[in-house]
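Researcher: Quick one. two chains, 717 residues in total.
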Amino acid sequence: MKKIHLLVLIGTILIATLFNACVNSEHRNSKAVNSAFTIVHLRYAREFSIKKFQTYKILEVKNAWDTLHTLARYILVSRKIPLPQNLPEGIIIRTPVQSIGCTTSVDACMADKLGVLSLINAVAEREYIHQPIIDEQFKKGKITEIGSSMNVSVEKLMEANPEILFVSPFKDNKYGHLKQTGVPLILISNYLENHPLGRAEWILFYGAFFEKDVLAKKIFDSISSHYEHLVSLTRNLSHRPTIFSGKLFGNLWYMAGGKSYPARFFKDAGADYLWANRPETGSFPLDFETVYQKAINADYWQVLEFYNGNYSYQNLKTEYPPYAHFKAFQKKQVLFCNTHYRDYYEQGLLEPDIILADLINILHPGLLKNHQSKYFALLK
Amino acid sequence: MRKGQIIFLLFSISFILFGLNLLLGPVTIPARTLFSLIKGSVVDDLSRNILLQIRFPQSVTAILAGAGLATAGLLMQTLFRNPLAGPDVLGITSGASLGVAVITMFTGAWIVYMPQLGVLSLILSAMAGAMVVMLTILALSQRIKDNAMLLITGLMMGYISSAVVGVLTVYSSAENLQAFTLWGLGTFSSVSWDRMNYFAGVTIIALFMAMLLPKPLNMLLMGERYASNLGLRVERSRFIVLFCAGLLTAVVTAFCGPIAFIGVATPHITRLAIGGSDHRILLPANMLIGASVALLCNLIARMPGVEGALPINAVTSLMGAPIVIWVVLTRHKRKYL
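Model:
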């Protein structure tokens, strides 16, 4: 009896795997396998998926901390049709959504690109959002400020009552209390993507809520083809300058891991990142000495600083005098981005191609013709 | 053991730990290189810079900060006659943080980067914050005789300071917030040579001041009435002790950020080591042990031989917290304090 059970089980698994394999191989170009659904092929993003059914779409956000479960599943159904019977389990959203709430400036940038800024009726951390329309709408009283991204006010959110609210999920979810407002929370875990284009590809996820799938795809394709073109320029360069990044934070230097977002930029920009062999996708702490020994003769040093004013080599030296011993410091080869003036963390998410071009332009002068740097320049 | 022998032993331990801090680190530098550097012969640039610009100032900072915090802790424990008193436990460090928060939030982050004026205002603001909390606790201690109640009051003072800091951070610019957060992590590597004279100067003066206090401290330990019968001007002595402890907490906190547990835990190690509460030996022994504890924590945080490091406050807390728990558990067995 047990054997039969086992056989049935193995059989089922085999069939499921085969079916799955078929679906995956057929879906590379978003073609229909059967009338059931098509999977939108994502080239770089790993943290979400989109499945298109005849009358609805399923958007799933992966759980980075527990890969056996999905973090959230949204069922997107057009407003034009009556709600279909027997929908799968998930949060039902009628599209296109007509009002949205944003908790990060990234959401506002995405909305801007998709041309739906006017749908925003609630924002958190307005001071970091730079789109002028938001300011105008706010002055007209059409946008409600709902607090900070880590501490959204329940009452303000209920007052604005957007159809959906975009939030960044963290390991210990800080948004549980917002569920009582009835506003569906759309989890955006784009910051977990390790490939710069993976983060940009999230525009497809946003686009689905506004039925702007085609536009989103067009925007992403233009970003990715530019990015890939730049990578093709640096791929076979024989000279790859060495680079490291960051600064001391307390007694620790958090160095970007070899599989991290910055490490990918360095590789694609034709640089030799000194910690490229580390397995971390985030950063890891080091003692200053370790960095000092390994990076003392590195060609370039990348520094990002939020500084109101003119940041200079003198600032670096005053912060910690041994910084001045680095060869990159002495040869004035510090790649610098002042995030007070440049939206590296916001707009930059949708412009990985421009960030990459900035890096290439500094690391390999002359390779790009007439490039105007936007995010990174050599520190003066 | 006689007094001299104990001090010599403790001094040797500190000295060895100082040597280990210079010798051991993530980067391997042979002892030979250190000795040739001391002799004045030529060594390679990397080793020379690591030893002179990184490890040496860091170790000196750890010694002074450790001795300073330990002394502040001892003075407070005697003054309040409470074994759990200490810079961080009674909210004094939070008070200093509040002072620093006010100055960075209102004047701007540049203050942290300014070599002279900035450092001075940082010390003064940390000092002011620390003194406000200490004076409040002292005033309350006149009315609240129960030590446990006093401790709770101190904790509440700490909470109030932290809450005000929290409110300030919400309304400050991201840049000032960043500067303050950075300071709040705590580190012994923040004092480079160009700031060392300020840090070392103030700390050493305050430590000397403390060394002049064993007599009044011994009398205070016996109770205020007894002390005043012996001819001690209680009010004045109390103020001097308080000022000295406040200055030490403030200067160390201003330069290194809040460092946890060294202040409250060290005096207990010292009392256990010398088995008494005579401040004539307690004070110097405590300074040396404080320095040793800080050096040991710094050594562990830098994880010699491994590519990686730990936050300094995680190390001091892991070492200090069990000692405090032990004090609470065995309190009734001990005569002093």
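Residues 237-378 of chain A form a domain with the Rossmann fold fold (CATH 3.40.50.1980).
Researcher: Thanks, that's what I needed.
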